[in-house]
Amino acid sequence: MKSLDRIINSIREFPTLPTVFGQLSDAMTDPDANINYVASIIEKDTASVSKLLKLANSSIFGFRNRITTVPQAILYLGFEEVKNLLLSLKVIQIFRIKEKNIKLITPLDFWTHSVSTGVIARIISASIGIRSSEILFLGGVMHNIGRLLFYITLPDEYSQVLKVHREDRISINDAERKIIGISSSLAGEMLAQKWKLPLQIIDIIKYYSIGTISDKINLNVAIIHIADLIASIWELGSDGREYISAPNPQVWENLQLPSNFFSINYNRIITESSEHCNIFLGN
Amino acid sequence: MKTSRIIPIEKIEDGMILADPILNQFSQVLIPAGTVLSDFHKKFLMRWNISYINIYSNEDDIDFEIEDELIEQATMYVLNKLLWTPSNEIENDIVYVASKHFAQKIKLSNQNQEN
């Protein structure tokens, strides 16, 4: 069976996102919804609640252990933030069930890379002053799901991809197109569409490796492009890449970050990434 | 949590950021956490007889001492991973930070091997 067909079948067989997200989205867009009602939906998933509260109390938000209930988390962080954090937790959970099938990479390495990308993206967006930075953390966590799908569904082909990437020193996306025929970005886009993820997330998954959308500026895509670059160069986890491609120069123009941005934020990036990884990937 | 450290108020410098709020005896906030401190605050605190405050540590230094050879080794390692040559200030900064990051790891793993 052709690789593309296997990818499509695999996506078809992937579980759908739990109905709780449909319920949450509806509840959150209902103008009459109140915090307690939304909280009651979330509280049905006890496994996610404790991680949600740990995240709410993490240094990235600065609430310092004051958040002890789900209604408080919604009150302090807002609906969007809570929904996106839960979604990140759920997606990781769904993939971790298939963990045993992954041989070429450890899931811990993979998710550390993704969570770190999310943290870095959030830190960049805070500096630029973007208001909807909640979507960027989620974008970071999700940006690479296509590659994970390849690891799960096409391990033999991906082993070849990694070999060609390492031996020929070509970008991993080029190696994917050469051996499999499509890049992981496209596979990721298909899975994201199945899950009806927000369009901003789908755009991030599809275009993060390029950095722009048809040469037009898109801040979310640009930020994830850079965040992914940093996480890869600094080896905060790994998605299998050994060699890292040049950033798109247009992205530097679009973001206008100060040239010492990463020196200044190094400690913060390392601390907040570890903290988040411990919560997301710990027990 | 963000790293913070306690300093005597004599050491307050402009730009330091207060990590914990300063409270009076009624637990009312005199100076909120997050305030960027200046000389004014220093005088204020002295008048209130406060001796120590908690500030956020400076984030701009990766403050450890590492031998030049380790940094060179780490820089070569980083440059070898890149499929391009850094060509602007921010790219150079990213490589610089990466080199210190890896140099520290090499140093720590050398120390662990010795123990």
Overall description:
The complex is a heterodimer of chains A (283) and B (115). Chain A is mainly α. Chain A is 69% helix and 0% strand. With 115 residues, chain B is an alpha+beta fold. In chain B, the strands form two sheets. Chain B has a two-stranded antiparallel sheet with strand order 1-4. Chain B has a two-stranded antiparallel ribbon with strand order 2-3. In chain B, strand 2 (22-23) and strand 3 (29-31) form a beta hairpin. In chain B, helix 2 crosses helix 3 (89-114). The longest helix of chain B is centred in the C-terminal third of the chain and has 26 residues, at 89-114. In chain B, 15% of the residues are buried.
Which features does this protein show?
heterodimer; A: 283 residues; mainly alpha; 0% strand; B: 115 residues; alpha+beta; two-stranded antiparallel ribbon; two-stranded antiparallel sheet; 13% strand
Low confidence ranges of chain A: none
- Shape summary of chain A: globular
Q: State the strand order across the main sheet of chain B.
A: 1-4
- General form of chain B: elongated
N to C succession of SSEs of chain B: EEEHEHH
Low-confidence stretches of chain B: none
Give the biggest beta sheet of chain B: 2 strands, antiparallel
Radius of gyration of chain A: 18 Å
Task: Figure out the total of helices of chain A.
Answer: 16
Quantity of strands of chain B, as a count? 4
Tally of helical runs of chain B = 3
N-to-C terminal Cα separation of chain B, in Å?
A: 30 Å
Biggest β-sheet strands, sense, barrel of chain A: none
Rounded Rg of chain B: 21 Å
Structural class of chain B: alpha+beta
**What is the end-to-end distance of chain A?**
38 Å
